[in-house]
Amino acid sequence: QSALTQPASVSGSPGQSITISCTGTSSDVGGYNYVSWYQQHPGKAPKLMIYEVSNRPSGVSNRFSGSKSGNTASLTISGLQAEDEADYYCSSYTSSSTWVFGGGTKLTVL
Amino acid sequence: EVQLVQSGAEVKKPGESLKISCKGSGYSFTSYWIGWVRQMPGKGLEWMGIIYPGDSDTRYSPSFQGQVTISADKSISTAYLQWSSLKASDTAMYYCARHAGTPGPDYWGQGTLVTVSS
């Protein structure tokens, strides 16, 4: 099971919007609407930000949104804030009844 | 409040065995899958495997099959990850995470740092 493909890094200025992509195959991202996104600050455990492609858990800012087209899912963060600087990971359910993560994307707020 | 509390950091020598734990509270422990995720130093998250405490059904990533064993004791709401013979390459942070069914991990433990060094 290969890791999902994410850009290694993205950056943006405060107030701007950024999008992080997550590319898989028809056996994972493309085959199921079970893509999640996680935020991880240094030295901390990951935190669920988006589940089932586009749903936000209670307490997560509506500046975070998710979408999917074919084998690629995307996380968009609007109105960037300094506190958004972190690593972001996507994950997907797979046809093997397992889960797989993306390689992670480091977001820098300039 | 859902909580997953993991056991403390471990320092082991190559060849030694180890079992780390993850205790769940604030929800029905037998009704949700519990998985384990590895994060090697400076690297990304890797999904290792999962167990359903209700019936001990277990699944592993092909990358970790045969390398670790996942188990659970539902009487004390605790899941385990164990190694029979550690290697230096097992040095990593290990997280447990409750899985909300097919959507995947939702709540995470604080992590257990495992250091394997001679």
UniProtKB/TrEMBL annotation, chain A:
The keyword Disulfide bond is annotated on this UniProt entry: yes
GO biological process, one term: adaptive immune response
Domain of life of the organism encoding this protein: Eukaryota
Matching Pfam families: V-set (PF07686)
Record protein name field: IG c867_light_IGLV2-14_IGLJ3
Assembly behavior: Immunoglobulins are composed of two identical heavy chains and two identical light chains; disulfide-linked.
InterPro entries xrefs: Ig-like_dom, Ig-like_dom_sf, Ig-like_fold, Ig_sub, Ig_V-set, IgV_Light_Chain
A GO cellular-component term linked to this record: immunoglobulin complex
PROSITE patterns: IG_LIKE
Keywords: Adaptive immunity, Cell membrane, Disulfide bond, Immunity, Immunoglobulin, Immunoglobulin domain, Membrane, Secreted
